[in-house]
Structure formats: structure tokens, C-alpha cells
């Protein structure tokens, strides 16, 4: 059986990653079936609890094995801040969108019973998986995660970002206004709780200039985003936005 120098079996790690994907897909399918009325609430809750426990155990096993791998540099912006760039034309304006996730580790679990963060971890993992294709659904999952942990900075940040992204599919101007207000409130709360969390600064700056057309408000957040010395691909996106915001600010 092949292992790394740290005793980690790469084949087993790959199996766990596949199991994680299967369980998260199963949870998504279960949600759709429940909303469609194909299963009753009792069966839904029983199945959801089972999938949640299994998914959380799988996530813990993955994290335990990854923790045994050689240490990586402490800050990996490409992993934390950027998983891709979407360019969307709307009313002749190009919207640059960053999407990302930040590494999350589970705290230790007691010898028996369910770790109280298990469901939280699964909710956040589901939200991350939906961020690109269904930002509105991702925002709803982050909101559910915040019911469990109202001051979770990652959930606040990415709820705000996915809410802003979800406005692209909205037709009612009132819905757009309300969603963007909630987006800014959520991102602002994340900045308040952790002023050194870079994701929130980057996203709130982009929302201000691209979604709210408020260059003056965007400037300090985009400046702070660049202070974290992001990689070239992030800097290439943010620097022109900052130049534009400075030029357009009164």
C-alpha cells in the first residue's frame, strides 16, 4: 500500500474525497426531493441526519490526513481567495467576480456523540459547492449556517458575496436593492469582527464599485485588499478597479 513519508495513504485520501463529493451531492438531491414533495418531513429529516453525520465524519478523516501532509506556506491566496474569475456583461458593464473559499478545520471531537460543528461544516461545504452555479442557493445555506453561529466570519463574508452575485438573476429592482443592502451589511459585519480577514475587504470593494456604483466607498476596501499582497491574478483584477474608483470618486 503506497504512502507518503508522513504515512498518509493517497489512495485512501482519494476515496474519502470521492465519498465527500457523493455525500454532498446526496444532500443536495435530498433537499430538491423534499422541496418537490417527493418525500415527507420525517423521512427527510432522518435521511438528512444520516448524511450529515457521515459527511462530517468523512470531512474529519480528510482533514486529519491532510494535517499529516508536509506543511504548506501559511498564506495561500490562490487557495483562499481565488478559485476562478467570472466575467459577466450586464447593461453594457463588465462585472468582475471573484469566488473562493478559505480553509476550514474542525475542532476536536469528543469520544462519543456528534460534534456540534458537524452540521455547520456540512452547510458551509454545500454552500461552497453551489457558489458558482447557484449563488442564491449558496447564500441561503450560508444564512442557515449563521443561524447556528451568527458571528462566523467566513459565512458572513460569503453570504454577502453570494447575495450580490444572486442579484444578476433578479428582475425586481426592490429585490435587488434589498439583497445588496443585506450583502453590504453582512460583509461589513465580517470586517467588523475580523478586520484582517482579506476576503471581506476584496468582496465589499467589488460590490461597492460594480454593484452599487459607489467608487468613493470602494476605495478603502480595495486598498486594504491589495495590502495583503495578493498573487498576480488577483492584483490584475483589483488594481484597475482601484484606479477606476479613485478616478471616479469626487
Automatic annotation (TrEMBL):
UniProt KW Transmembrane keyword: yes
Name assigned to this protein: Cytochrome c-type biogenesis protein CcmH/NrfG
Keywords, comma-separated and alphabetical: Membrane, Transmembrane, Transmembrane helix
Regions crossing the membrane: 81-101
Source organism, top-level taxon: Bacteria
Amino acid at each position: 500500500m503506497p504512502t507518503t513519508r508522513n504515512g498518509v495513504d493517497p489512495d485512501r485520501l482519494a476515496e474519502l474525497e470521492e465519498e465527500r463529493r457523493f455525500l454532498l451531492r446526496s444532500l443536495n438531491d435530498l433537499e430538491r426531493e423534499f422541496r418537490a414533495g417527493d418525500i415527507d418531513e420525517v423521512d427527510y429529516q432522518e435521511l438528512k441526519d444520516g448524511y450529515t453525520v457521515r459527511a462530517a465524519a468523512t470531512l474529519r478523516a480528510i482533514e486529519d490526513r491532510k494535517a499529516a501532509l508536509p506543511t504548506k506556506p501559511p498564506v495561500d491566496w490562490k487557495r483562499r481567495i481565488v478559485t476562478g474569475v467570472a466575467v459577466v456583461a450586464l447593461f453594457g458593464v463588465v462585472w468582475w467576480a471573484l469566488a473562493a473559499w478559505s480553509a476550514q478545520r474542525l475542532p476536536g471531537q469528543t469520544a462519543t456523540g456528534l460534534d456540534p460543528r458537524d452540521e455547520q461544516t456540512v452547510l458551509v461545504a454545500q454552500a461552497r459547492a453551489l457558489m458558482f452555479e447557484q449563488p442564491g442557493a449558496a447564500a441561503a445555506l450560508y444564512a442557515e449556517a449563521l443561524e447556528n453561529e451568527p458571528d462566523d466570519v467566513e459565512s458572513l463574508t460569503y453570504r454577502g458575496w453570494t447575495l450580490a452575485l444572486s442579484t444578476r438573476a433578479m428582475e425586481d429592482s426592490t429585490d435587488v436593492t434589498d439583497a445588496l443592502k443585506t450583502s453590504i451589511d453582512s460583509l461589513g459585519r465580517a470586517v467588523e469582527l475580523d478586520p484582517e480577514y482579506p476576503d471581506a475587504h476584496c468582496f465589499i470593494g467589488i460590490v461597492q464599485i460594480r454593484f452599487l456604483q459607489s467608487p468613493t466607498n470602494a476605495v478603502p476596501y480595495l486598498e486594504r485588499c491589495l495590502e495583503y499582497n495578493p498573487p498576480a491574478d488577483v492584483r490584475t483584477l483589483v488594481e484597475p478597479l482601484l484606479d477606476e474608483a479613485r478616478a471616479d470618486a469626487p
